[in-house]
Amino acid sequence: LVNLTLVNMARKTAKRLGITENPEKYYLFLNPYEEYRFTKCPKCDKKTKIRKFPLVITIKPGMLFLLNKSCKFCEKCQLIIARQREVEGFMAFEFSSVNPEIVGNDYLVIGTLERKDWQGGSRGLISPQEILEKVNKLFVDTNSRRLKSELKKNS
After folding, report:
1. Are the C-beta atoms of residues 58 and 107 closer than 8 Å to each other?
2. How far is CA 135 from CA 16, 68, 85, 104, 111, in A?
3. Which residue among 12, 78, 90, 115 is least packed, with the fewest CB closer than 10 Å?
4. What ranges in 2-114 are assigned the alpha helix state H?
5. What is the CA radius of gyration of the chain?
């Protein structure tokens, strides 16, 4: 599971690694609730669309994972809604045979990549340092905490 304290750590890490040049393009809500599919945006109530995003994920201790994931997306709010269980499932599947000791470790979705950079990174043509330099950072949606508490009340 994601630690909310990792958000501040990620900002400090990004600053230390020099990931300050790229703009913050999107907001992210990592949806931990199986029963909520978010066919409508939780911010503006407009219908969400499905779009693929090349996500960049850091996993403790210092692993980088690239995932081209279909997510719900609100164009108006620039909000990406990724299902937490699916993200964790992809990571567990990928690392269970290659590096099983990191399965279940803390992780953080730090941003998105342009499609060409994701393809280069997936093929090993771009180094991890170059990937970190090209990351479009994500804003962690501050309303997601409020949304989580509202969803718990309604359950």
Report:
1. yes
2. 14, 14, 23, 24, 6
3. 12
4. 6-17, 84-98
5. 15
Structure tokens at 26: 């999107």
**What one-letter code names the amino acid at 144?**
S
Looking at residue 10, its amino acid is A
- Residue 3 DSSP SS3: coil
Q: Which two tokens stand for residue 104?
A: 């279940």
Number of H helices, E strands in the chain: 5, 6
What would the mean pLDDT of 56-65 be, rounded to a whole number?
88
Q: How many CA atoms lie less than 13 Å away from 20 in the CB half-sphere?
A: 7
For the entire predicted model, the pTM comes to: 0.73
DSSP letters for 66-95 = EEEEEEEEETTTTEEEEEHHHHHHHHHHHH
| Residues comprising the chain, all counted | 155
